[in-house]
Amino acid sequence: MFICQECGYQSLRWLGRCPDCNTWNSLVEELSSASQISKAGPDEHRVSFPKEEPQPIGAIESIEQERFTTGIHELDRVMGGGVVPGSVVLIGGDPGIGKSTLLLQASDVIAHRKKVLYVSGEESVKQTKMRADRLGSVSEGLYIVSETNLDSIIEFVNRLKPGFVVVDSIQVVYQQALSSSPGSVSQVRLCGQELTFLAKKTGTSVFLVGHVTKEGNLAGPRILEHMVDTVLYFEGERHRSFRILRAVKNRFGSTNEIGIFEMTGEGLKEVLNPSGIFIEERPKDISGFAVVPTLEGTRPLLVEIQALVSPTNFAVPKREARGVDYNRISLMAAVLERRIGLEFGRFDVYVNVAGGVKIVEPAVDLGIAMAIASNHRDIPFDSECVVMGEVGLGGEIRAISQIESRLKESARLGFKRAYIPKGNASSLKREIIDMELIPISFVKEALDRTFSERR
Ligand code: TYD
Ligand code: MG
Question: What pTM value is reported for the model?
Answer without folding.
Answer: 0.77
